[in-house]
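Purpose: get a first structural picture of the assembly so the mutagenesis plan has something to point at.
Setup: two entries, given in the order below. No constraints added.
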Amino acid sequence: MEWFLANSGTVFGLAGQHFVLAVVPMVLGLLISVPLAQLARGHRALRTAVTTASSLLYTIPSLALFIILPPVLGTRILDPVNVVVALTIYAVALLVRAAMDAFDSVDEELRLAATAMGFTASARFLRIDIPLSLPVLFAGLRVVSVSNISLVSVAALLGVGNLGVLFTDGLQRTFITEVVVGILGILVLALLMDALLVLLERVLTPWTRAAAKPAAGAAMSETRIHEGAG
Amino acid sequence: MNIFADTFAWLASPANWGGSGGIAVRLLEHLQYSALILVIAAAIAMPLGLYIGHTGRGRVAAVAVAGALRALPTLGLLVLFALLAGSGLMPPVWALVILTVPPLLAGSYAGVSSVDPAVVDGARAMGMTEFQILFRVELPNGLPVLAGGIRTAVLQVIATVSVVAYLPLGGLGRYLFDGLVLQDFPRMLGGSLLIAALAIAVDLILAAGQRMILSPGLSTDSRGGRRPAEDLAAAAPAGRDLQGGTP
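Result (structure tokens, whole complex):
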């Protein structure tokens, strides 16, 4: 505790770097996956290709990817860009699936109704598909957020600044307090991000609370368990 | 571009494959660590998961615990265990066991509870004992989901075992850390490619094995609808497994 108070400046600085390294890939991943998923839904071959590619990409261990990327991108090994690109790849691999599931979860009859009311294809996508798929999409985002925050710390092994530095430094100095502060810091960061996403989802999807509460809740947990299992 | 040429030369050189620190030895170490971790984790998680799935008891607690474990940073836990319990093989193994239990637990309870309740009731009505129901009805029918959890766990272990070389132990991760210290980039890149190739190869073998032991009844189903097959493919990404675990 004393160590934490004395070094809180450093810890918060590292937490800030950690946060940026985790959030930027998540946002980039979202911006790439949503259009990709929509595109893939229309084309059967593309859908298979995207599904296969995303599971293959996810099998590459993060530490290996952090090292494979620099020569491919022409960056230095210490460059945080490697971490951002690597985590964006993982985020896309997870989110493109979540987004396809999310769009599948939208009732087809609503789409037909929107078309009948004269919505153009893009208006239908932006005003029907996107809002209604948010609950499933957010479930995917929450998974990405937790896994990104945990993966960022691995980059500390290569010397990229984030809370993981407390682990490498703690091991060198055999200083347990520092390691514990690092673990707690990452847990707190993960919880905060999760709470933020839950809050954002609530703000963006007011109708899920207005509609029959228990039914909606049951349906959600059902899909999550199913996806989790699958 | 010569980095790739150098890496290829490093990988192709027989001198790097043999000997006590050679690729063959490191690969074997990597697989041994992974197997040890998986066996211990499975011994803990599977009976628990099958019990929770069969009885439906303790599900909420299991989901919460599994979700919380998933947020733990691998590296932090490894370092903490190494500092608390000293050097040697077992502290990092236990740390990784803790991280491997959640996907196995989730896979086994979700697998058992994914079986149609009508089928389970049917089996019970035919006079099967609870153990027969579990092993002859729920397990074969829940296999697609269970196998998804196992594949996630295996991938995760093979990936994270690379990190134990930091402590320092053996395994393919050795090349990454030695390469980093020596500024020997081809060695790091070669090691990374070996780890990635190992992960992909093991996953493909598991996928093939899964197809072989899957009950014919379930596989005809999947040929008709395609849907279960897609679910299986969806199982591969580590991390997805516990979607049910984040409340």
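Chain B touches chain A through 64 residues (CB under 8 Å).
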